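Supplementary Methods S3. Input chains for the assembly prediction are listed below.
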Amino acid sequence: MDKLKILMIICDGIGDRPTAELKNRTPLQYAKRDNLDRFAREGICGIMDPIGVGIRPGSDTAHLSLLGYDPNEVYTGRGPFEAAGLNVDVRPGDVAFRCNFITVDEKLKVVDRRAGRIKSGTHELAKSIDGMEIDGVKILFKEGVEHRGVLVFRGKALSPYVTDTDPHAEGVMIKKAKALAEAANITASVLNEFIARSYKILNDHEVNIKRMKVGKKPANMIVTRGAGIVPHTKNIKERYGLRGTCVTGIPLIKGICRTVGMDAVEVDGATGGVDTDMTAKVKAAVRALKTYDFVLLNIKAPDIYGHDGDAFGKVKCIEKIDKALGILKDECKETIIALTADHSTPVIVGDHSGDPVPIAIIGKGVRIDDVKNFDEISVAKGGLGRIKGLDLMPLLLDLANRSKKFGA
Amino acid sequence: MDKLKILMIICDGIGDRPTAELKNRTPLQYAKRDNLDRFAREGICGIMDPIGVGIRPGSDTAHLSLLGYDPNEVYTGRGPFEAAGLNVDVRPGDVAFRCNFITVDEKLKVVDRRAGRIKSGTHELAKSIDGMEIDGVKILFKEGVEHRGVLVFRGKALSPYVTDTDPHAEGVMIKKAKALAEAANITASVLNEFIARSYKILNDHEVNIKRMKVGKKPANMIVTRGAGIVPHTKNIKERYGLRGTCVTGIPLIKGICRTVGMDAVEVDGATGGVDTDMTAKVKAAVRALKTYDFVLLNIKAPDIYGHDGDAFGKVKCIEKIDKALGILKDECKETIIALTADHSTPVIVGDHSGDPVPIAIIGKGVRIDDVKNFDEISVAKGGLGRIKGLDLMPLLLDLANRSKKFGA
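Predicted structure tokens for the full assembly:
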């Protein structure tokens, strides 16, 4: 039996709950779905708990789980995945933080948590505090979008169990990092020293002096949150023998994929927003399948409408996805395709929920059940039953004739 | 999204197997079910293995599991839960035993395992052996119903791994407690010493002297069984942020709920028997929801008919439950309600079985599947699929918008 390729389509946050606005249907139930229903009709369906029954996943923990990495084992915080998303070459054992450039006064009281919504100059500011070494810990800093950035510590005996220095409020003092476990003492003291040193550098930096001259707030302080350690794990090539890549506009998702050894395809028009060019992304995924064994395609927009509580927006977005997926029919004959989500983002909740997500799998040799519709209720009667996110990769590897026999 | 309250209705032992008497239907399939079917029609259904597939649960282990406490981790024996059910303030690390007052002759041979079915005087007898201290172990004793009681050891280095001193037979000697592990040596020796001392006290006790004068058997010995340790666990307030209570006529169930930090509502007419006032219990649960976030309502009667092998009795009992649940429709709009059982008690088995139990969940935002009937077979096609008892609390917390996000 030939090995098939694998395409995992993650419609971010597409699962939902019934909404009065939609006559007590979910957006999926309400939307016109030609191509989504084709997946249901021509494949095997089920529901999936991305992490566990009733567990409310983040996008990061859910994607790890769907890629076969148990977030209970590998996830301590978002920092490493944000850093990898910004193309920082994080390595196992590194501790990474999400950061903001902020504005503080001379007493270190927070004046602006976004440093006057700084748009330019952060690259120069980041460069000025990147590359320090404190107590044997090598320190990397890289700017992100607007006021955001990432901080990476590399060295021995680091721990992610330190408190945020970000006070998450204005008009208050920034916080000292505290160790939450004895093993984190070094990390906390290096972090406090880094923050003290970087304040001196940033406060006198040319970029900030210029900003102040034109009445803008200086980006003169770094605050940290979301500390996490880069796990020691086998990558997907070692675990599954797969060459993988992702198609996504979201740096965090790119970061997660990179952390498990995948590449990230850049797509013009893939913004990660509601205005994203979905057809371009689907085409990019199809192209990527020519050179990769495994492609993860994340379509972020449904999640955004869920967070906004916009039921009709989510319906229209689902109909756009439905249209964009039309080209897959003829293009992916030698591919096992899973159509699913990382979590539900119900419009009545306005945030992720622990409700299971629908899943349909099509491709050569897949058992075909009698589910006709791709919605949260219909798929629950399908041939897959109720599975967990961690089941997905083994399931797809086996359908793609790539699993190893256990025993003889 | 507003937080909702949670009502868990446990129809004890309601699950069953097909019975020839009922034309090869289960009592649930056979019974007239207006309100039970409303749960199925207006909610999401499934089947649930209280502990695991094919695992035959006790009421105690099943309730622990449904409350989110893995009995494989927290349950070593029934003693602690019986003690808590009798309002003994058991604490983590305590070892507790179920006891009988029995009658022994001068050679310590068992004459009567129920001490002549003693009905009065046990309070005074219990008092006389309560409060000892042996080798640094504080000892509590409290009488239960009729010849029953509980014994609690409090101290360092206690272990539940000791053999029963109850020989579970008459005409034989009571047994010495033996340690089943080295760590239980102290517990076994303290237990043997307690039994020797209490025999001396009980044998000469005024209550027993009076009993003998009127030809009744003395309650002159204590035997023990069901040793268990009170687990070191977070209570439901710490774990789930819930203020909880239970409505049940069964001391053991009260004890389990208390052990995880819940209160117990007293209800006139809630006997825990087949004559219980079910409407009063349902009303008490509705009242409790005004001041508590979480209410567990246990209705014991179906289990009793199952143990008795009384198919038509179980059918009638189900119809009584069906009627009693009618008031919930209008009273619980801001509540997620789960209707389920702790285990099946098939009439053809006359005991608990490992068959999964039916479950239906209704409330704001719950996905509604197309199951119309609340019986063992119909619900298996529902939107929940097959879940485990340990999944229930996370699931209900999420539907009640009380779950915490894992990741970002």
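Chain A touches chain B through 38 residues (CB under 8 Å). The two ends of chain A are 18 Å apart (CA to CA).
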